[in-house]
Amino acid sequence: MSNISRINKLVCEVKKTSSLSEAEQYRDVPINVILGSDETGKVSIMAHSAVSLALRCMRGPINVFFAGKKPAVCLLNYERGLEEFLFSEAEKYGSADRLKFHNGPPTSGPVLSLGTLVSYGIHADADGWNALINKTAKQGTSAVAPSAVFATCCAFAKLFKSAILCDTRGHDEQWDFSLSDYCSNSSIGKSAPSGLDLGRIGLVGAGAIGSGFAYNLWLSSWSATVDIIDSDSYEEPNIETTLLLSKKEILSRGKKAKVLAKSLASCTNLDTKPIVTRIYKESKELDDYRDILICAVDNTETRQTLDHANVDLIVNGAVGGTRFDSGHILRSCHGSSSYLQLSSLYSAKSPTHDASEKNSYVPIEVAGDECSRVAYNNVSLAAPFLGLSVGALLLASCAHRALGITTDKKYLKFDLLNMQSKYKSE
Questions:
Q1: Coil, helix or strand at residue 300
Q2: Residue of 314, 213, 231 lying closest to 280 (CA atoms)
Q3: pLDDT band at 399; cut points 50, 70, 90
Q4: Which helix (H) or strand (E) holds 229?
Q5: CB within 8 Å of 358: residues ≥ 6 apart
């Protein structure tokens, strides 16, 4: 794995900076997060997600403001206040000094408001299965974890684009998206039962998308047996893209499957098993029955081996790899009733992808080094808000199966850095 920062590469690709170090300088911005009241726990979910993203994507101060009474955390049996809940995340990331709590409204800097609508900045809210961007839900409504996380990621992507990429187009876009039927302008539905059992899940890949799925599951309070399958070890760039884990855990360079499984071990509703192996076509691991197989890998070869796994449903997630698809996220479903096998979707690189790699803007650090250039062009743009949003869509698909919800949306593709409501579905 290359040691290139995924976020620096994304900034370099989109802004065409001359170097990765120049791209990093654009991340030296503050963020102001305004939190609404939290009777049901959804603001706690959104707040933790937003702070986790800000710690990794930005390098400036993270200022948290409370629009009303400072709420206690209403999830994960966490009985202490929200300040301590957020501070523990900043401390785990090694940046506790960046997190500040304030009274009164912010006076300057980019603003992300969660669960409360203000007249400036970018707003996220959730209601049941619905993610609301630059809209607000009725006060006191609850939301499932995937919709709360997805809304936060979409709003954060807009803030990232305006504050770091210096592009405000789409900043004021208002839209909503239901994770129960994968449609916009859907009726607001009730939350799923808190005791939902998702069955036995195989998670193939424990990087940005795999940990994004695990993070959503951790916040959901839903039950599952999860086999985490990955042969690789964590490396330094994973600090920015892998949520749930501390810097210390990443830098220990342990096996991904073991480290991620251990991070979920404290959840009494989850039974996790690490499987340190690489998946091949003849892998015996594909013979064991599972209800769902989550494909969270970053390579075509592994995806092509999963068609005949002994599962009811395969759900695949992906993010972009070049400036031509820098904000793209993908979720697709495959199974006996699917119109498309996973190997067909990833049969070969498309001409567009080949062309984008060939013409990729290469920064000065790697332009003269063929080995580094190859590594640079093979590095995904897995900014954490991309991996986390894919994880929300993947978990929603698991909940659909457990609840008996059927949808004809087998393929979903969003561009979180442009008009999010102009998504593609099939």
A1: helix
A2: 231
A3: very high
A4: strand 223-229
A5: none
Selection from 212, 176, 151, 178 nearest residue 383 by Cα: 212
What letter represents residue 121's amino acid? G
Question: What is the C-alpha radius of gyration for the chain, rounded to an integer number of angstroms?
Answer: 20
Q: Kindly write down the DSSP assignment for every residue of 148-195, as one continuous string.
A: HHHHHHHHHHHHHHHHTS---TTTT--EEEETTTTBSSPPP-PPPPTT
Which has the minimum average pLDDT: 51-60, 137-146, 355-364? 355-364
Task: Name the pairing type of β-strands 122-127 and 130-133.
Answer: antiparallel
Report pLDDT for 63.
Answer: 96
pLDDT band at 353 (very low <50, low <70, confident <90, very high): very low
If you average pLDDT over every residue of the chain, what do you get?
Answer: 88
Where does 164-299 have alpha helices with state H?
Answer: 208-220, 238-241, 247-251, 256-264
Question: What pLDDT digit, counting tens, does each position of 263-307 carry?
Answer: 998 888 899 999 998 888 778 888 899 999 999 998 888 888 888
Calculate the CA 336 to chain-centre distance.
27
For residue 298, CA distances in Å to 97, 101, 243 come to 34, 37, 17
> What DSSP line would sit under 335-362, residue for residue?
ETT-SS-HHHHTSS--HHHHHHHHTPPP
pTM of the model: 0.94
Q: Residue 189, exposed/middle/buried by CB under 10 A (0-12, 13-18, 19+)? A: middle
